[in-house]
Specification:
This protein is α+β, with helices and mostly antiparallel strands. The chain has eleven helices and 23 strands. The two termini are 44 Å apart.
Length: 526
């Protein structure tokens, strides 16, 4: 069934607006009657089945309002909410990821007469400075040389080249996943050329909190003429190495982030560089698995999981969400799983934990939401938020982990149409609708955004009390399918029509939240 019908949408919006005018004669000088929720949907140029929401009482789980509550939508990064809630419940808020340095052989006269292993434990926030702690531990044992191999052990997780193969090659938010992750599994690429063949010069760096280190072994080539500046870098097809092809149409000089396919090798390379600076000679790194009898020389523990998830939700970090989800599934299943199987294991945990919820249609391809094929209903995410609201994590509930979002949006000055929009145009907010001022309330929520898919889920906490939870999903599944089938899906630049759709979706979110906040009965502060 075709979801987007231009004529039908325009006629529906016009009919609803006429209904508003005829419903009750307005007094001279009286403000216009506020639009109903149904009218708000049409006023923002969206079809009725493209919008779903649930408003609920987080204390009781009671339903306060709903629309298409059991329809499946694209959750986008709202999928990080079920990931975080399950990780906290299964692993515990104080869970820490460990990166270890192990030796298979004795140390004598400054020489490790055996192999050295850098073993990854899936720490999503490991930085160069953290590896420095392990280097200092090695130096404290008076090691100046390793006579055997230097191996990096990533056996805790299966090799995953990228989170979602549909995304653009150069999307830094779509890196490879590894048990040995460093600096968010991305590199900074700087380049320059004068347009002549063979003039391209490129340099790669791994950047951390306090500085950067050069990365060797990144291969570059010139891509054949293609779609142009919108797709400036692509991976070399069929090459598992870090091999990039750069469009001859790329600007003369610039800098960008690139995701890593095999981050463990780069992490080991940087560890070796740090050791060299400390006067410790290591052989070139190679993959390997630490034997059970290897002695632990040092362990670097991550921050507590609750703090990792706080940052994950605030910055919508896909890498951290995926590693937290994989660790959760490993704890549940007792074994290391692929990304799709791990997602299914966590979904089964939710079915057992919340058996009264209808889980039909619930399918998350991964733990970050980076997939247009993932689906969830407003009612399912609302059930997870209601469950999370009743659990404490180091003195606060789940709401305290969600980002505090501003009420004002970039579109408020011009309504649903965005900058320069004309009132009453097709797909624009009508002259009868104007955004209300921001309420005296805290908005704590997780956003989710993909082309033709938008989500927002969390809690509203009015200053006068009466907190409520909500989930809003807006998806145009037909246009998203067409987008996935087009060359545009490989570009880092959204087409104008997708940007306009997202502006209208965000504006509708705000209009609905303002309506619900104004309508909620006041009570004692939560």
């Amino acid at each position: 069934m075709r979801i987007w019908r231009k004529g039908a949408a325009a006629l529906l919006a016009a009919a609803l607006l006429v209904g508003v005018a005829q419903a009750k004669p307005a007094k001279i000088g009286a403000p216009p009657a506020p639009l109903t929720e149904e009218q708000l949907v049409a006023a923002h140029g969206l079809m009725p089945d493209q919008v779903g929401y649930v408003v609920f009482d987080p204390a009781t789980g009671g339903l306060l309002a709903a629309r298409n509550a059991d329809r499946a939508f694209i959750p986008a990064s709202v999928a990080k909410v079920p990931t975080a809630v399950a990780a906290l419940a299964v692993l515990g808020p104080q869970h820490r990821f460990e990166t270890a340095l192990l030796a298979d052989g004795p140390i004598a006269d400054g020489v490790l007469a055996g192999d050295l292993y850098l073993k990854g434990g899936g720490d999503p926030l490991l930085m160069t400075e953290d590896l420095g702690v392990l280097v200092e531990a090695l130096k404290a044992r008076s090691v100046v040389r390793v006579a055997g191999r230097f191996a990096y052990d990533v056996s805790l997780l299966p090799p995953i080249d990228q989170i979602d193969p549909v995304q653009p090659d150069a999307a830094q938010y779509n890196p490879g996943l590894s048990a040995l992750t460093l600096n968010f599994n991305r590199i900074a690429l700087a380049w320059e050329h004068d347009g002549a063949p063979g003039s391209l010069k490129a340099t790669a760096f791994s950047e951390s909190r306090d500085g950067s280190l050069p990365v060797a072994g990144i291969l570059y080539g010139t891509a054949p003429p293609g779609p142009g500046p919108a797709v400036p870098l692509v991976r070399a097809a069929g090459d598992p190495r870090e091999h990039w092809l750069i469009s001859p149409q790329i600007e003369k000089a610039g800098r960008t982030w690139l995701p890593l396919r095999r981050p463990g090798a780069v992490a080991a390379q940087i560890f070796r560089s740090l050791c060299a600076e400390a006067g410790i000679a290591l052989p070139a790194p190679e993959p390997g698995v630490a034997p059970e009898q290897a002695a632990v020389l040092a362990v670097r523990q991550s921050e507590p999981l609750v703090e990792i998830l706080r940052a994950t939700l605030k910055y919508s970090n896909n890498l951290a969400a995926e590693l937290a989800g994989l660790a959760t599934a490993r704890r549940l299943a007792g074994e290391t799983l692929s990304l799709d199987r791990a997602s299914a294991v966590v979904a089964d945990w939710y079915r057992r934990t919340l058996p009264d919820t209808d889980w039909a249609g619930y399918r998350l391809d991964n733990f970050s939401g980076l997939s247009s094929a993932s689906r969830a209903t407003p009612a399912q995410i609302a059930a997870i938020l209601a469950y999370a609201a009743g659990r404490q994590h180091d003195g606060g509930d789940f709401a305290s982990l969600l980002p505090l979002l501003p009420w004002e949006t970039e579109n408020d000055a011009n309504g649903a149409g965005g900058k320069g929009a004309k009132r009453g145009g097709r797909g624009r907010a009508p002259a009868t609708w104007k955004p209300d001022p921001a309420p005296d309330a805290a908005l704590r929520a997780k956003t989710g955004t993909v082309a033709y898919g938008r989500g927002l889920a969390g809690y509203v906490e009015p200053a006068s009390g009466g907190r409520f939870g909500f989930v809003i999903f807006i998806s145009d599944l037909e246009r998203r399918r067409a987008f996935d089938a087009s060359p545009q899906v490989r570009s880092l630049i959204l087409p104008p029509e997708a940007k306009d759709w997202l502006r209208r979706a965000r504006s509708l979110e705000r209009a609905l939240l303002l309506r619900w906040t104004a309508d909620r009965p006041r009570g004692p502060p939560p």
